[in-house]
Amino acid sequence: MTASKTLLSPTTLYQHGTLALLVPGLLAGTITMGELLKHGDTGIGTGEGLDGELIILDGVPYQVTSDGKVTVVDDDFTMPFVTVHQAAFKKLVNVSDTNQFMLEQQVLQEAAAQNTFFSIEVTGTFTHVKTRAVEKSVEPYHTLAQTARNQGLFEKDDVRGTLVSYYSPEIFDGAAVGGFHHHFISDDHDFGGHVLSFHVDQATVGLQVFDTLEQHLPTKNKPYMDHDFSDDQITETIRAAEK
């Protein structure tokens, strides 16, 4: 799988679609993986119909499906929502024996960047990770709340891997998840997904801060262009689905 070298600065975050468009069930894939990888080599997202969970590392797009299988998707794989950037992480801190809440609070304190977008990469050993992956919906698509009910839950102890996370300021809640959004992939590529909880044994945290958000919208998708979002309970639905 190849892609043209990105023209984006390492301080630019590229996002296709928004979380808000998933709420009413606008789940059609509107960008291909081949096109996406022109904009970055690291990221997270989901496939058409909320087809599992994606984590992109070193330009390789891994998909965790609702049955727990991990595969590498092709260039023609499509997505309604995905975020990527060109990795240029700088070491922030080493952590040990810490849970998700404690790590998030430490990162916020050390990074001092809560009013902008940033990404963290946590690499090392985890004493426990709990993930999920949503089952693919087909047309006519269900809403986000309905689709999120059908998901596989997975847990693993003593696993070595990488957590890729994005932090979005609360004022952008709806465009993305306000706060942290974590995905995980094990080093042996047999476990991962959207992270529900984790506990770190020993790991290194890398930080990359963005000063620019490049937001790409699916303007060629008629259902998106015609939809009225005013009656959608966007924030409440996203918060419930992301738990």
Question: What is the terminal separation in angstroms?
Answer: 33 Å
Shape: globular
Order of helices and strands: EHEHEEEEEEEHEHEEEEHH
CATH class: Alpha Beta
- Tell me what the CATH architecture is: 2-Layer Sandwich
Strand order in the largest sheet: 6-5-4-3-8-1-14
CATH topology: the name is 60s Ribosomal Protein L30, Chain: A
- Biggest sheet character: 7 strands, mixed
Mean pLDDT: 94
Number of domains: 1
Number of strands: 14
Strand content: over 45%
Oligomer: single chain
* Poorly predicted tracts of residues: none
Report helical residue fraction. 10-25%
The CATH homologous superfamily corresponds to: Hypothetical protein, similar to alpha- acetolactate decarboxylase, domain 2
Keywords:
7-stranded mixed sheet; 6 helices; 243 residues; alpha+beta; globular; 5-stranded antiparallel sheet; decarboxylase; 46% strand; 60s Ribosomal Protein L30, Chain: A
